[in-house]
Each structure stands twice: as C-alpha cells, then as structure tokens.
Design goal:
The protein is α/β, with parallel strands linked by helices. It has a domain at about 135-205: Photosystem II 12 kDa extrinsic protein (DNA polymerase, domain 1). About 45% of the residues lie in helices and about 15% in strands. The protein contains five helices and six strands; from the N terminus they run H-E-E-H-E-E-E-H-H-H-E. It has helices at about 5-65, 90-95, 150-155, 165-175, 195-200, and strands at about 65-75, 80-85, 120, 135, 145, 205. Strands 2-1-3 form a three-stranded mixed β-sheet. Strands 4-5-6 form a three-stranded mixed β-sheet, with no helix packed on it. The longest helix has about 60 residues, at about 5-65. It is elongated and about 120 Å long.
Length: about 200
C-alpha cells in the first residue's frame, strides 16, 4: 500500500481510529486503577491483621507477666497487689506503702522474685514466722526448695546436696543466671542425672 493510500484511509476512518484509541486508553486506565485499589486494600487489610495480631500478642505477654501477691503483717498498707514477675519482695513492700517501724526483715530475702499467689508476711521484731523462705510445699505435701532463691543452708536440706554441691548451685546461678526448669540443675558441676532423679521431687524453680 502506497503512502498516499494510507493517508486517504486515515482521513476516511479517523473517527473510528480515534474512538478505538480512546476506548483503549479508558480500558487501560481502568485496569491500572482497579489493580492499584486492590493492592492498597490488600496492604491495608494486611496492616490491620498484623497490628491486631501484634496487639493480641502484647496483651498475652503482658498477662503472662502479671503476678498477684498478698502482703500482710508489719506493712503500712497490707493487701493484695498486682505486679510483674520481674519484681521482687522489696518492690512489693514499696507498693504496699513500706514497712512499719517495728518490722523485722532480717530473715526475709528482699531480693527474691515474686510468684503468682505468693503470700508475704512481714513479722514484728522478735516474732517468729517461717514464711517468705525458699521452702515451699508441693501437691503431695513434700517440702520443695526453690533452687533459684535458696541459700546454701536451705539447699543443704535437700537429701543428696551437701555443702560442695550447694555452693556449686549458687555459683552456677550467679554466673549463668537463674534456672528455667528443674532439669537445668544437671548443668551444675557435680550434679548428674542420678542425683537429679533423687532430688527432683524436692526442688522447684
């Protein structure tokens, strides 16, 4: 086809060609807009889902960190307090308004971390109250010792743990950090699986 013929054809059909071109532009623009809207909606939905999941995770973690303790005795504001598991007995005392003048904390481990449902009794000077120690009782009424907070003497009350092993336990937790489960005690030098089997019913973390 000659150039002159092409020019004549375009002049005769320019309206149809222009309409087709405009239709193509409209279709392409509509497709691009639809795709952009869909992508934005998906991003928005993903953001909402992610934020919701993050908030739920934060709330779950916060609820797991909360402990409720009962503090009584020679304390200014005795009662039930909600704190976090990273807090210690000293923090619970502060939350309860501090000690009374005749309070005796000489036998209380103020650095002991709090546990849920823990009861803290602050005795008067000269009053004997055997609580707040690392000694607890399990469901079978067997005495258990918290290997994260027990003193050397308390550890030595465990059948099979002498002075050397008690010192090794204390040295381990001071250098390596607290035990996360009772099985971790086998990481202490001198305490193997056979010793663990003997003492596992009498220890806790």
């Amino acid at each position: 086809m000659k150039l002159e013929d092409i020019i004549i054809y375009l002049k005769q059909n320019y309206k149809i060609i222009l309409l087709a071109l405009l239709s193509s532009i409209v279709l392409v623009s509509g497709y691009i807009y639809w795709n952009k809207t869909t992508v934005e909606e998906n991003i928005s939905y993903s953001t909402v889902v992610t934020n919701t999941e993050s908030e739920e995770k934060i709330e779950k973690n916060e609820s797991n960190d909360v402990v409720i303790v009962d503090i009584k005795g020679e304390i200014n504001n005795p009662g039930v307090y909600e704190l976090t598991k990273e807090k210690r007995i000293k923090d619970a005392i502060d939350a309860a308004g501090g000690l009374k003048e005749n309070a005796d904390t000489s036998k209380i481990n103020l650095s002991q971390k709090l546990k849920d449902q823990m009861m803290i009794v602050i005795p008067k000077i000269g009053e004997q109250i055997k609580q707040n120690s690392a000694e607890q009782y399990n469901e079978n009424n067997k005495k258990t010792v918290n290997i994260n907070t027990a003193s050397k003497e308390e550890l030595m009350t465990i059948n099979g743990i002498g002075e050397t092993k008690a010192k090794a336990i204390i040295s381990y937790r001071e250098n390596k950090g607290e035990f996360t489960k009772i099985e971790d005690i086998t990481k202490v030098n001198g305490i193997g699986k056979s010793t663990f089997e003997k003492i596992k019913e009498n220890i806790e973390v």
